[in-house]
Write a structure and sequence with these properties.
Number of strands: 0
Length: 122
């Protein structure tokens, strides 16, 4: 009698395990999806950060129309070129700041969700 009771409880446990495997574990799906999305955001942000760092170090001089300077002798092409370089550096600094803020937000979100995924799988 005792062995049949053990068999029935074992059968119930195995039946409940198989029922869990057939359904979708929405929590795990959510955690993996958020982890993937935040990881991709971090990846693209690092790429943008590198590009903006290069823009800061080696700024684009922009295009200066030589004919516009000839028509208006008051405009010095070197002044326009320096203004373009300064503008590109300001844009690079703004881009770097934006990328750092994005990383500051997404990295903790990623780490939290990945920690939860690791906790579930153990």
């Amino acid at each position: 009698m005792a062995t049949s009771a053990k068999k029935s409880t074992t059968a119930k446990k195995s039946a409940s395990k198989t029922e869990d495997n057939h359904g979708v574990d929405w929590r795990s799906l959510y955690l993996y999806a958020v982890s993937l999305i935040t990881l991709l955001v971090c990846l693209f942000t690092v790429i943008t950060l590198i590009n903006r760092g290069l823009d800061l170090v080696v700024p684009d001089t922009g295009y200066v129309d030589p004919y516009a300077a000839q028509n208006n002798p008051k405009i010095d092409p070197e002044v326009i070129k320096q203004a373009n370089i300064d503008q590109n550096r300001r844009n690079a600094i703004r881009g770097i700041t934006s990328s750092l803020v994005t990383l500051l937000v997404t990295v903790p979100v990623y780490l939290y969700h990945w920690k939860m995924v690791r906790k579930i799988t153990r």
